[in-house]
## 1
Amino acid sequence: MPACPDRVFAYGAAAGLLGDLLLGDPRRGHPVAAFGRAAGAVERALWRDHRGRGAVHTAVCVGGAVALGALAQRVVRPSRTASVALTAAATWAVVGGTSLAREARSIGRALDEGDVEAARERLPHLCGRDPQALDADGIARAVVESVAENTSDAVVGALVWGAVGGVPGLLGFRAVNTLDAMVGHRSARYRRFGWASARLDDLAGWPGARLTAVLATVAGGDPRGAVRAWREDAGKHPSPNAGPVEASFAGALGVRLGGTLSYAGRVEHRPVLNREGRAVASYDIERAVRLSRRVGLLALGAGAVAARLIRKGRTA
């Protein structure tokens, strides 16, 4: 009997998240790394300082990931067990909550021990900030901001698209997010070529970012503060998706995020999020990780409900 899509997603995504919790990311042979190498090869063949070439690059890479997921899903469709196993494997491959928590906590431990240099050495594993430009409080703030943003990018967004599109949705979202990290930044090489990847990432990340903000409000310690920070400050952030996520986390945790930061020597002065909060301290890293975990679990439940509603709508 063909698998029921909503149950396949619910059971498979739960198993995939459990696998991520128990195993984390493999140190070698990660599927996302393999995709990155393939995307790099396509880039070398197609690169020109032109938006059209970048759009082709995005279409080839994302389309290839979606097609691979669709083919695999079609092959296993007659078997419920195989369908759940495929969804679990795809979920495990694309989510990164455990690695996110592990990196954040390692930096938090270094800060708690007063070893700022060790924290600076670990920070590039989590985000692209210039660690030498940050003191202990600045590192802690960068980690909390990264935990917030990556909760959306590495967990919730993937579950949203998995609920909507099954395995192709899971793989497609991770492909979009990975391409944005590779070519979506505004360097001289990628300002035009990476434009399509950056815009597609904004579109794909939109629903997950809003769901993350809602769930952070529900799961955090200060729902009223989270709503206030989201409403007042999210639109000030230069990223349409990071703004709601970081603002809601800031309000839920009662801390200030944003402000001056440095990327590879380039200084940016961003608006402060939740100005009424206090400065971030090292112990807020653990609080952010725990909030991220709660948001991920709630997102799994929301995704299962959404998948069921989508199936009912299609069969009505």
Note: The CA atoms of residues 103 and 125 lie 7 Å apart.
## 2
Amino acid sequence: MASHRRPKQPSRARVTVLTTAAAAAVAISAQAANAAPSEKPSKDEVKAKVDKLYEEAEQATEKYNGAKEKQEKLQKEISTVQDNVARGQEELNELRDGLGSMASAQYRSGGIDPSVQLFLSADPEDYLDKASTLDQLSGQQVESLKKIQDKQRELAQERAEATEKLKDLASTREELGKKKEEVQGKLSEAQKLLNSLDAAEKAALAEEQARANRSSAERVDLGNSAKGSGRAMAAFQAAQSKIGTPYVYGASGPSSFDCSGLTSWAFAQAGVGIPRISQDQANAGTRIYSQSDLKVGDLVIFYGDLHHVGFYAGNGQVLHAPRTGAYVRYESINNMPYQFGVRI
């Protein structure tokens, strides 16, 4: 006869655990269902983030400009050294040919001096170290050998200099590539944020930017501020002729500019050479710390790391190339953290 067993009942502890787990799962589901969706950033929040990215891009741009300037300088220096090496090698060959001609003349007149034979088949450095050998040479031969020795030393130094500069150039090119990527990355990130806006928000931001750019084409009250020197005013007027020209990172005119590209280009039109990047322009003249002492045509340096520069235009206005997406225009000097002016 088969036995009938009652099914084993779950323990009270197990029931409690299962009940608690089920309750927790229901609570989590309810919480997830009731959670508010993540809020999309507002137009003003996006603008603030984009402005910050543009500022960071400009910081990287000035470093990019510095690396680019260094690269161009190194390339010129390397070219000069290589030209010197080539000319030096020609001079050395002529000196050796001259000594060979003397040796040939000696041979035709009755035999070649053993000491000259030794030189022609060995390094003159070792040769001249032997005082006994010098005694066997004529005065003209000794002078020729010393010239050859000096020229060899000079060429060795120039070749070593060229090698070091080539290493520095390779390092500078690497830095240039990194800074270019950094700038492009910041600009790409800013564009993604702008693309996240809806059509109405994009239109509103575009109108804000258009209003700011229009101020450069409309009459701006520059007051009757003191004018700078003739050359400073000539540079300022050259910059004024570029109002409405777009900002492009790394550009130095004449169809687009970044901030220091505009100021260096403008002074060049006035016949004055100033450094390419804002940090160097900050040291190119007399510093003016009080805004009340600024004259039209003075450079104005902004931000703690000195990464932005423009012209003082008078009446609290600056003329500058602001940032990506903007144009050369007038703007209040108080829109950026003023550091000091520079009178070239």
Note: The first strand starts at residue 286 and ends at 288.
## 3
Amino acid sequence: MSHRQPVRVTEIAQYSAIIDARTPAEFELDHIPGAINCPVLSNEERAIIGTIYKQVSPFEAKRLGASMVAANLALHLKETFADKPANWKPLVYCWRGGLRSGSMVTWLRLVGWDAQQLAGGYKSFRHQVVEQIDAIVPQLQLRVLCGATGSAKTSVLLALQQQGAQVLDLEGLARHKGSLLGSLPGVAQPSQKNFETLLAQQMQALDLSRPVYIEGESPKIGRVGLPVLLVQHMRQSPVVEIKASPEARLAYLLRDYAYLGDDVDTLCERLGFLKEIQGGETIARWQQWAQEGNLPALFEELMRLHYDPQYERSQSKHFEQWSHRSSIAANDLSETSIQQLAQRIAGLNSPVSVT
């Protein structure tokens, strides 16, 4: 059995399993990809221990904490790890590589497994994620897809991926469509840390010698913020604009956002956020249309009065190569047309207008 020094983040791939010994709440916030959560303290137990540590004494907290840890470890040994072979080689981590992961490693080694502890715990992994993003972003050969709301940018991005192109689907990672009405029903956004973990994981898999297609985004997608360096690099990169007709965009929006009609109260609430910009009379009309299920009228005015003016104001201001953008017209955004748009975009070799 090995008794080496704690393992570095760069050595993670050598292990049979990655075990996160933190609480379920910490694990849900973010964790090393592929890790399984085997907490030595539950959410409630950790809160109790923290209170005793502050209000009674560190000794009492450690004494009670040790009994809780022992009980949880016994359960994991009896159930979660019951089928593990003698040559099982798990890597264990907690927040900073301290008592929680150390306790589990001790017991796993007593059984006979070659268990190791991650140096610095999750905190060291988190540092690596930030460093990876900062190192990779400047090397990305980005091609930024822009277009007014309803131009099927995300669908085109996914079509590019299906056709073999490299993409970074930021809205997919953020689980949000990026607009005022972009929340997905029943789908929670990841935490900021988890979003960055997923982003770093995707970036690591990219071939930096090839272009990477990305949708032009604001600094925030819903409540998730993009890394500042990525936003800066995006805004300096070549742009491809999808110039879809208003009719094609409206038809696409009615398909893509059809679920909004199923939750009228939420839709009306979100429309209310625009009252200061659009005025009470306009918002009242939009909310009335929402209640009547008249999404065609609602989306047509949202495009014309809200999204399109915003788009026109923001693009030249935010994208440095906007005046040199490639531009592709689209009068249809059906599935077949989206595949064709992706083929045309992939065939662009330089930012020359093809409108």
Note: Residues 350-355 have pLDDT under 50 and may be disordered.
## 4
Amino acid sequence: MAIAKAERLMNLALCLLGTRRPLSKRELRGSIEAYLEAGSDDAFNRMFERDKDDLRELGLVIETVENLDGETGYLARRDSNRLPPITLDAEEAAALGLAAKVWQQARLAGAASGALQKLRAAGMPEAEDSYEAHHGALEPRIPVHEAAFEPLMLACRDRRPVSFDYRKANAARAEQRQVEPWTLECWRGHWYLAGWDRDRGAERVFRLSRITGRVRSRVGTFTAPVPDAVTVRETVESWAGETATRSALIRLRAGCGYPLRSRALATRRLADGWDELEIPYGHGLDAWLVEFGPDVVVLEPADLRADVLDRLRAVAKD
């Protein structure tokens, strides 16, 4: 059904763009096979009006003109539907090229690469990538494996409320959340959704890998103001553990946990195959430490140690 509609819309757009004079409904119906197969005039009229509205929503400028006989015609003038010349400098071209590489694992990979090819065909300059030229194996990527990514991305774009089942790291069961999604942010290889939690009446950050089941759209508009992008990014970093307010002391098995070692404020080698690290401690550190399993032991503070143990017990119950 989706393919048939897309083909019908394409045929209608080509008819409207390819004519020098307005075409009536009667002429359009006789030119497009899908309209010929409509069971009645009413069915055709409903189909045509929906298609016309869909094309206009996609950005096609369709004019409605009445001829001398009083018959209504439609056309899409090419000069009204022509994009302005594309002018990109080398830095902008490099940013677009990097973006296309970043999305290789997402479902948008095809659209991203196709758009890049069209921009290059239109004259976008080729950006020299010194990393790619000298280190072909080094390539930036942001993995997108979660099924919730695409519906949440569309909901953020359309400012559409959603609901989903979410399981916190220290919870045995998932709970339904009603959320007004603001934006998606990637941090330390994980995707997070920032938005307004309607049930709690406050901003919240959700890790996509903990969303279970299907993301469901909800009717209605946002009830809370959407903050600017910088504020939202700072919120995600704070919830995910980027903003440290104090330090923690942990034991880390030798040869393990290199991401933790890179953030260590101090490191002391122990004699029993373990190292002692002082690391920044902010919101979300407990969830990150759990990912290293038996290779990490929290020494202090006591509240961080308790949070890590609670998360491990919740995992063990499964």
Note: The two ends are 41 Å apart (CA to CA).
